[in-house]
Design goal:
The complex is a heterodimer of chains A (531) and B (319).
Chain A (H helix, E strand, L loop, with lengths): L3 E6 L9 E8 L2 E9 L5 H5 L6 H5 L8 H16 L5 H27 L14 H8 L5 H9 L3 H9 L8 E2 L2 E2 L5 H24 L3 H4 L5 H10 L1 H4 L2 H11 L12 E3 L2 E3 L12 H4 E3 L2 E3 L4 E2 L6 E4 L42 E4 L8 H8 L13 H8 L4 H25 L15 E9 L2 E10 L2 E8 L1 H6 L10 H6 L11 H9 L8 E2 L15
Parallel strand pairs in A: 2-16
Antiparallel strand pairs in A: 1-2, 2-3, 4-5, 6-9, 7-8, 9-10, 11-12, 13-14, 14-15
Helix pairs in contact in A: 4-6, 4-7, 4-16, 6-8, 7-8, 8-16, 14-15, 14-16
Chain B lengths: L1 E7 L5 H7 L6 H6 L3 E5 L9 H11 L7 E5 L2 E2 L10 E2 L2 E2 H11 L2 E5 L1 H5 L12 E2 L3 E2 L2 E2 L16 E3 L6 H12 L15 H4 L10 H5 L69 E2 L3 E2 L8 H13 L12
Parallel strand pairs in B: 1-2, 1-3, 3-7, 7-11
Antiparallel strand pairs in B: 4-8, 5-6, 9-10, 12-13
Classes of the chains: A alpha+beta (531), B alpha/beta (319).
Chain lengths: 531, 319
């Protein structure tokens, strides 16, 4: 007999911010899910009428986890609006800021947010469970403290150039504020080496970075695990073995379409910033992957639906430059929400009409694009993994951690390319206009659109990775990526719906969740499960 | 030993990220060596859904003692004082905070949003955000000027955007080892041990400030007070004594101090001409002068320094 139930989780936690989800469960399987972002601050509204450079101070503070990424976008948006000139040193130091923030987030996210769920009792009868608990239990796990402590090192490098992490504003239109000296560069190298020696090679990889980067296919990866005990028993080796043993490759697929806005503007290819010249200048390429083919990214194909968002006075399908500043509508707690109407503070971004997953998996898929140029990352691994396994919680997590060795190499290279005798900043001329800046935050595509009129901000729109991933149904009733990824999952124990948490956390959402479930037959809310 | 509950309202999680950077003690050492028991935290908590709601209810019922309530993020009262722009665990966050603050041993507000509203409270304040016991410079905020916790103290404010991890961990340690009596607070409820010095104290450009030598973006040496809006001489915080991420500070990396530990940040509400620009009268005289000096005496002193022929940039031409 089929029984459809409604399950309410508020909050899920370990997703940054406030997210509610409602799932309909039929015989233990989720048949439909709705995500609800549950907090509104109105940052875009705050910037209206303010100094054009306000975004440099305000937007990093939208998100303390990806503040450097917001800064990368905010400074780029002003660069394109004002038509600045950027010296190579400035592009290098911005890229280093972005890369150190992202590599920091890899161990911090993996240990503090994701891996503790694998120590959940759900997996207690799996052979590798004891080892997972020993390593990854919250606070007391052997690797937990080492990984968490090491995660502070890359952002020490960020602080050398930006003064502090989080919440610096050191990237400004025309360049960067800092003019580092030799001692800053040597210290930065030394800190990165410490990060490698404390965690990245001995604990995470069990081999050298160079050896790891020889892996080009899923078969290579499996062979690498089995090559010796050091690989097998590294945290990455354990993640691959336990991930498959625990079946993480079997759920949380999502929408199967991917978007990356790309990042790391090449030091010699973006000295005259323009929106049109951006794609070519990226080291980590942008693009849209429809499941089979890669397409060039065009920011004009981005739009947002708001049919199910708590905003009034806006039509569906507007490009950010055409969107009005937000007019908040009346919100409801989850148990009073009508999911046919407005139900989230998040909007529903679409690319050419498609819901897209964004994040590390989208990035590494773009890295596998055979059309990438010589200055761009060319890495076929995830093209192969997507063909053999497709998207899943496991694929998503593997993509996230796969970036650490490459980012380490980039940071070392970019530090070595800084010319201490050259300029770091070229003072721009302020003017009215429209601008667009984008990057890849650790957790995915991030973009800012600005319009400056009469010397003040007329419009500012931010589209964050979590907006892409966690957004509600669009105007046509198509679900967002996390809503889609939750559909079909099996919830073994409704009193501990860890599977919902695992899926949401695999996206590294910047939100806090509530999951809700109904008796669909009677339409009456069942008494809540005790979670 | 102390039980800590950490909640986030209108927050960016920046203070949590800052806290996770802590060393001596690390977050793990706080738990394993200093006996802090984190009942729940939004980024690291293991409980999910109704488990969290049950915990909150047990705290309110007195079944679980909450020694410290740490609050990060603004207190969202919108729209129209309903607080429904910020639901948490199926209720407006503000309703939880009202009740939890009544049973808390001590309440610690971390970051500018929790202390006095921060960026969300900048006009037009779309979410009707305020701080726990201040709204910008005005005492009151959400809990009211007269609020004291069960431990007998008002809200302890650890401002900053974000707060430095040491400012957070040392106050938590002080409470857990029974030295709360030594935590003296100033007129804005900031622990004096961290917020008596000015940001300028320890700044590597203090000589250039004294000799009125200008600095700017992308150059070495020179003081940022004159052209790019540095607030180091008006801002109380130990940023140049207890460095950030063990390495640096804003002013040491040629980044003007934004004054983020003073109520009112972002100052001048981000009005045109106030961001990374020193606001001046007649294009010459800075509108704000170092704390403790009258404008006239400052202008006279600065004028003398500027015209003295011996003064030129003590430039760190060395790379």
């Amino acid at each position: 007999m089929s029984t459809i139930k409604e399950l309410n989780i508020s909050p899920v936690g370990r997703v940054e911010g406030d997210l509610d989800v409602k799932v309909y469960i039929d015989n233990g399987k989720v048949t439909r899910a709705h995500t609800q972002a549950a907090m509104f601050r109105g940052f875009e509204k705050i910037m209206e009428g303010k100094d054009p450079q306000s975004g440099l101070i305000v937007t990093p503070r939208i998100c303390g986890i990806c503040g450097g990424s917001h800064l990368y976008c905010a400074s780029s948006a002003l660069d394109t609006a004002w038509g600045t000139k950027l010296p190579p040193n400035a592009l290098l130091l911005r890229a280093i800021g972005q890369a150190t923030e992202t590599i920091q987030s890899i161990p911090r996210w993996f240990y503090a947010i994701f891996a503790t769920d694998l120590a959940n009792k759900k997996y207690a009868n799996q052979p590798l469970y004891a080892e997972v608990v020993k390593r990854w239990s919250a606070y007391v796990g052997e690797s937990f403290q080492k990984g968490l402590t090491a995660s502070g090192l890359p952002v020490q490098v960020y602080a050398l150039f930006g003064g502090q992490w989080p919440h610096s504003s050191y990237m400004v239109p025309g360049g960067v504020m800092c003019a580092p000296t030799l001692k800053d560069i040597t210290r930065a190298h030394a800190i990165m080496v410490q990060f490698k020696n404390d965690w990245l090679e001995p604990i995470w990889l069990g081999c050298t970075i160079e050896r790891y980067m020889e892996i080009k296919s899923w078969d290579d990866m499996l062979a690498w695990v089995e090559e010796n005990d050091s690989h097998k028993n590294s945290d990455l080796g354990l993640l691959i073995r336990a991930g498959i043993e625990f079946g993480l490759d079997k759920f949380g697929q999502g929408v199967g379409k991917f978007l990356a806005t790309g990042t790391y503007l090449h030091k010699d290819m973006y000295n005259t910033p323009t929106i049109d010249g951006r794609n070519e200048a990226l080291i980590s390429s942008s693009g849209f992957f429809d499941g089979e083919n890669w397409h060039e990214f065009d920011h004009l194909k981005v739009s947002e639906d708001v049919k199910h968002s708590w905003y009034d006075n806006q039509k569906d399908g507007l490009h950010p430059w055409d969107e009005p500043l937000p007019t908040p509508a009346k919100s409801q707690p989850l148990h009073e929400t009508d999911f046919d109407g407005q139900y989230s503070w998040s909007k529903s971004p679409r690319y050419d009409g498609h819901a897209c997953e964004t994040g590390p998996l989208a990035r590494v898929i773009m890295n596998a694009n055979p059309n990438n140029k010589d200055h761009q990352i060319k890495d076929p691994l995830f093209g192969d993994i997507m063909k053999k396994m497709g998207p899943s919680v496991f694929t998503r997590v593997l993509a996230r951690v796969h970036e650490a060795p490459r980012l380490y190499k980039f940071i070392e290279q970019w530090l070595s390319e800084i010319d201490l005798n050259a300029e770091f900043y070229i003072k721009p001329v302020e003017k009215d206009g429209k601008g667009f800046g984008a990057t890849e935050a650790a957790r995915g595509a991030l973009a800012h659109w600005i319009e400056i009129k009469d010397g003040v901000i007329k419009n500012y729109q931010v589209m964050a990775p979590t907006t892409w991933n966690v957004g509600p149904n669009d105007g046509k009733g198509n679900p967002g990526p996390i809503e889609s990824a939750l559909t079909g999952i099996e919830i073994e124990d409704p009193s501990d719906p860890v599977e919902v948490g695992i899926v949401a956390r695999s996206f590294d959402s910047c939100l806090v969740c509530t999951v809700h479930a109904h008796d669909e037959k009677s339409g009456v809310e069942l008494s809540k499960f005790k979670l | 030993m102390a039980n800590v509950l950490w909640l986030q309202g209108g927050a960016c999680s920046g203070n949590t990220m800052s806290f996770l950077n802590a060393e001596e003690p690390t977050v793990v050492e706080l738990i394993t060596d200093f006996g802090l028991n984190i009942l729940w935290h939004p980024t690291t908590g293991l409980q999910i859904g109704d488990q969290v709601q049950e915990l909150l209810k047990d705290i309110l019922a007195g079944k679980i003692q909450m020694d410290i309530l740490v609050y990060e993020g603004s207190l969202i009262e919108g729209p129209n004082k309903t607080g429904t722009m910020n639901y948490f665990a199926d209720r407006p966050m503000m309703d939880w905070i009202k009740e939890l603050s009544a049973v808390a041993g001590y309440v610690v507000a971390i970051g500018d949003c929790a202390t006095w509203g921060g960026i969300p409270a900048v006009a037009p304040n779309p979410s009707e955000s305020t701080g726990l016991q201040f709204h910008k410079k005005a005492k009151g905020g959400f809990l009211g000027a007269d609020y004291v916790s069960k431990g007998g103290l008002p809200v302890i404010n650890i401002p900053g955007c974000p707060a430095h991890p040491d400012w957070i961990t040392q106050i938590l340690v002080a409470i857990s080892i029974g030295r709360i009596g030594d935590v003296l607070i100033d007129e804005y409820h900031r622990p004096k041990t961290f917020f008596t010095d000015f940001v300028q104290d320890g700044c590597t450009n203090v000589t250039n400030f004294a000799q009125k030598v200008d600095g700017g973006f992308g150059t070495r040496g020179g003081c940022l007070f004159y052209e790019v809006g540095c607030r180091g001489p008006m801002t109380r915080a130990s940023c140049n004594n207890i460095l950030w991420n063990r390495q640096s500070s804003k002013t040491r990396s040629n980044h003007p101090c934004l004054g983020c530990t003073e109520p009112g940040f972002p100052h001048n509400d981000l009005m045109k001409g106030s961001v990374f620009k020193t606001m001046k009268y007649m294009g010459v005289f800075p509108k704000e002068v170092p704390t403790g000096q009258s404008k006239l005496s400052y202008y006279i002193e600065a004028g003398f320094q500027k015209i003295k022929p011996s003064n030129k940039k003590i430039k760190e031409t060395s790379i």
